[in-house]
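The records we work with from here on pair a chain with its fold. A complete example follows; check for yourself that the lines match position by position.
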Amino acid sequence: MGKIKVLHVITRLIVGGAQENTMYTVSRLDKSRYEIDVISGPQSGSEGSLIEEFYAHHISLRILPYLVREINPFKDLLAMVGLYLQMRRNHYTIVHTHSSKAGILGRMAAYLARVPIIVHTVHGWGFHDYIPRYKRRIFIFLEQLSARISTALIVVSNQDARQGQKNHIGSLGKYHLIRSAIPKDEYFECSGDRAAVRQELGIPIDALVMGNVGRFSAQKNPLEWVEVAARVKRAVPNCYFLLVGDGPLHDQVVQLLKKRGLYPFTILTGLRRDAPRLLSAMDVFLLTSLWEGSPRVIPEAMLVGVPVVSSAIAGSAEIIQNDLTGYICQPRDTQVFANRCTELLTDTEKRYRIIQAARRYASQTFDLTQMVTQIDQLYRDLLNQHGKH
């Protein structure tokens, strides 16, 4: 019959978990079975861009100018028309969407284009407690509508499935848990780079280091991260801080670091694509995000051998078994965050115990080959159900 034609649609290719998940999926699915295209909007920003990496992986990528993250009725209509025309022209059997905007427009276009199989991956819902109530209601309504025309919904955490069901988004049978995995060998191999990375960054080899890898955005809550760091510094005077990434709150982060007297002890690397090496320089990884789907950076840190303290949100509370593979704390509980980080920094035996348990768990649970195999199997099952063997 020839190859199965598949289209993946995503709002933007910034450096982020949903984008990396999509890149690994489309680059590793069986090319003898699937012919895969990707459509993305043009936006990048201070978070960096993965567009060149998509091309380096020889992925067929098209940039759709009108597909933007912000709500814009005129551009949204043009984007949906562009997606519809692309789908009609290329006769895709499967359309697989990612992220909220592309998920809504892409699924509507696929439905109108009569694409047989419509799949959406929920990388964390777009409606959360930190947006205005009216916007939340609009997003939920649009997700409910989009779920009705979806063949399957992939979630990266059980919490996302529960939240979807709670808000009457799709039937239970449409949900499939496939965790967002990582190329674990890259992280295992970097666990021995600690001394070299510290020398490169100017961090004393005998210092204790608390770090983070992620966007400087409201979602990631970096200003609270700095407040936690200030408390940790008072308890652990020889502690340094390593922040990898960039984003719209960069200047505010720098200002707060200076105000709290932490700037001389903080290394801000900016955007880097060697996160595994940089993680190896850390002793504790702190994540203060307010909302996430399933933060891939947690298993990344686990594989390198860095114990994690994270806010108890969606996927992170599923990844971390408290006091066994890391610590979880309630969002915005700055003092508890600081206590847990201080405990891990100063108790070598406990740190080592958590590192060993976390590495075993992450290695078994976030295997990239397993993730791609699960997606392939879902595609096969859906194709069989629709008589598209």
